[in-house]
TrEMBL record:
Every AAA domain range: 5-183
Superkingdom of the source species: Bacteria
Coiled-coil regions listed in the entry: 103-130
Pfam family for this entry, one: AAA_31
Keywords: Coiled coil
Name under which the protein is recorded: Chromosome partitioning protein
Keyword Kinase: no
Keyword Transcription regulation (UniProt): no
Transmembrane segments: none
Length: 257
């Protein structure tokens, strides 16, 4: 299973969802890998506690290899970092990804990540991909490489408008590049059940036939505490309500196997 968590609108909790689902997957006994494709490296920091020059080159080195030429060029290898959590590994991101992007686009390296994931799938039960909040080279590469896409949504009117365009873009990408890609659904994040507007937006999306999943992730300060501790919720406070919601969401997604 190769799942990409993506929304081109920032601030919807994309990295938090990717990391916490990967952490639940690992806690459930699956050998799990998260690949961070965002130059901001939020997922990398969350799962490793590393920052700046302490972060291994990771996925940027893999993409540099794809640009290399000559008989002695190293091809298709990637360094994998072992997190402090059992069964959970990460391919780290660095700011260098931003510098590499135009070169990769120029050289048409859009399918290289898919080949890498096909090899990594031999060693991992579950692979998660965290993407930048933009439909750029790295995101398109991830959508081509994945077999599932999960879309975070934060019950905001701007998010709603962006959602329609995003669903259309994914459908076009499926037709052109990856017909096996499955939209698993829209997961509502930072949900406030006592507020009228979020529930109204949610009801309208469901009425329109959009694939809204039946598990909502609550808004909680515990998530910020989790970020600060560099410890996913299932390891920080497994009994917390939000931790249990991630467990429920993971079980729902696994039931679609």
């Amino acid at each position: 299973m190769r799942r990409v968590v993506f929304n081109q609108k920032g601030g919807v909790g994309k990295s938090s969802i990717a990391c916490n689902l990967a952490a639940v997957s690992a806690a459930e006994g699956y050998r799990t890998l998260l690949i961070d494709l965002d130059a901001q490296a939020n997922s990398t920091h969350y799962l490793t506690g590393l920052t700046g020059d302490d972060i291994p080159v990771g996925i940027a080195d893999f993409f540099k290899q794809t640009l290399a030429s000559g008989p002695f060029a190293k091809k298709g290898k990637v360094d994998i970092y072992e997190t402090p959590f059992d069964n959970l590994h990460v391919v780290t991101a660095t700011a260098e990804l931003a510098e590499l992007q135009p070169k990769l686009e120029q050289k048409h390296k859009i399918n290289k990540l898919r080949k890498l994931l096909e090899e990594l799938a031999e060693d991992y039960d579950r692979i998660y991909l965290d993407t930048p909040p933009a439909l750029n080279f790295y995101t398109v590469s991830a959508l081509i490489a994945a077999d599932r896409v999960l879309i975070p949504f934060d019950c905001d009117s701007f998010s709603r408008q962006a959602l329609y365009g995003l669903m259309q873009e994914i459908e076009e990408l499926k037709e052109d590049h990856n017909e096996d890609l499955e939209v698993e659904g829209i997961v509502v994040n930072q949900f406030q059940p006592r507020a009228a507007l979020p529930q109204q937006l949610l009801d309208e999306l469901i009425a329109e036939g959009l694939p809204v999943l039946p598990v909502n992730l609550m808004s909680s300060v515990k998530m910020r505490e989790s970020h600060q501790a560099c410890k996913p919720l299932i390891f920080l406070d497994p009994r917390h309500k939000l931790s249990q919601q991630f467990l429920e969401l993971h079980q729902l997604l696994e039931s679609g196997e």
